[in-house]
Amino acid sequence: MTTPSRLPEPYGQGSGANLADILERVLDKGVVIAGDIRINLLDIELLTIKLRLIVASVDKAKEMGIDWWESDPALSSRARRDELARENAELRERLARLEALEPRRAQEEAP
Length: 111
Fold this sequence. Notes:
Its main location: other. The protein is α+β, with helices and mostly antiparallel strands. The protein has helices at about 15-30, 60-65, 75-110, and strands at about 30-40, 45-55. It has 2 domains: about 15-65, no CATH class; about 70-110. It has 3 helices and 2 strands. β1 and β2 form a beta hairpin. The longest helix is centred in the C-terminal third of the chain and has 33 residues, at about 75-110.
């Protein structure tokens, strides 16, 4: 007579596909977790912390209008190049203004 085993299946067999399905569904649909923490003392608000967490795929985030990482120089090489080009243009403009002022100073100092 055999008795059925009551041990759970190892993680590698049945739960891997389930976890992948759940992850795919979460990334496809997106999940928003929001919460606020407030610290009051005698009805005086001392601290408020607002927490917002969005878990979604990049495509879903772009669909929702969330694309802040594309303009962050720390995360996007295109944003880094754009920032360097803007900074370069500003420095060239400042240099041109300084060079335009230099001949005037030379004329004012001449006897």
